[in-house]
Write a structure and sequence with these properties.
The chain is built from seven helices and 15 strands. Helix content is about 25%, strand content about 30%. The strands form three sheets. A six-stranded antiparallel beta sheet has the order 7-15-14-13-11-12, with no helix packed on it. The chain has a five-stranded parallel beta sheet with strand order 2-1-3-4-5, sandwiched between helices. Strands 6-8-9-10 form a four-stranded mixed beta sheet, with no helix packed on it.
């Protein structure tokens, strides 16, 4: 069994799909503890450096990957017939090597149906505007089924049905553990407290914030001060008692006397409108405002400063 599986993401650069492409890249390349085989994910924005030959990268990496994921939004479908575009070049390589490349078409929900070389291929549909939506779970399962169709995680002496059942449960765990994050630096996320022990992450790299939530009631929640495994590098959580979310755009906008430090177990739950501040181990701040608390979820509008 190969230790790594290589996946190339082919997409059309635009503002509408940028956040999802970043999300998909992180979702697949996350260093998880669920799947034995790791995925090497390649895409131009994250896998190249200043001065690299983009044409060589696209053609060389694409044809040598185990799988090519094609994000088929309207712009991709238009550009694949436009000479001179990166999508046109990538699709041409796919056509020339279609017998050796395993293509995974992703149809973007609400956009035109796949056409051209993708017309007769089976595809999955994903709502890219809300990647952690429960309705996308089946699509992620199909994606992992395709990539890990030949996994060897169970003793081969076991019946085939047993092995398939185990693999399906492992993939489900991977989806649950790895979709509770939003790599964007600002926005609004729906947090389901029933998933991954209520853990949800925001940002990435040094701008990563890990949060944890439980419900106190149908309209109140607890948020916890998640500590780093290294006790010398902590994350801090505060409640901003007087300042409005909209008025905090810089750490200097916060008065230390208006902040209540929260230890691991908060003394009282938080309701709609509560403003929270996080400071991570790299001394970067995130501010969030709680809204729309329901039985098993809440929304957090946030910005990483």
């Amino acid at each position: 069994m190969k230790n790594h599986i290589s996946v190339f993401i082919s997409y059309a650069w635009n503002k509408q799909n940028k956040d999802f492409v970043d999300w998909l890249y992180t979702f697949l390349s996350d260093k998880n503890k669920v799947l034995e085989q790791k995925i090497n994910v390649f895409m131009d924005r994250n896998s190249t450096r200043l001065g690299d030959d983009l044409n060589s990268f696209m053609t060389g990496t694409l044809i040598n990957s185990d799988f090519v994921i094609c994000l088929l939004d309207n712009e991709y479908l238009e550009r694949m017939d436009m000479p001179g575009t990166g999508v046109f070049q990538e699709v041409n390589e796919i056509k020339k090597n279609k017998n050796n490349i395993q293509i995974i078409p992703i149809h973007v929900y609400g956009h035109d149906q796949p056409s051209g070389v993708f017309n007769k291929l089976k595809y999955i549909t994903i709502n890219i505007n809300n990647p952690d939506d429960n309705k996308n779970i089946d699509a992620y399962q199909q994606l992992l089924d395709k990539i890990f169709s030949n996994t060897d995680t169970v003793n081969m002496l076991k019946p085939k049905g047993y092995k398939c059942g185990i693999d399906n449960l492992i993939k489900k765990a991977f989806i649950q553990e790895n979709r509770n994050f939003n790599p964007r630096l600002s926005g609004t996320s729906t947090i389901n407290t029933a998933f991954n022990n209520g853990t949800f992450s925001f940002g990435s790299g040094q701008q990563l914030f890990t949060t944890m939530w439980t419900h106190a009631s149908n309209n109140e929640v607890y948020s916890y001060n998640v500590q780093n495994s290294n006790s010398q590098r902590k994350q801090y959580l505060y409640v901003c008692t007087q300042k409005k979310y909209e008025d905090i755009n810089n750490p200097l906008d916060v008065d230390v006397n208006e902040c209540l430090y929260i230890s691991w177990s908060p003394e009282k739950p938080f309701s709609n409108g509560t403003v929270l501040l996080w400071i991570n181990e790299h001394k970067i701040m995130m501010v969030g405002k709680i809204s729309d608390i329901s039985k098993d979820s809440l929304k957090l509008t946030y910005k990483i400063l």
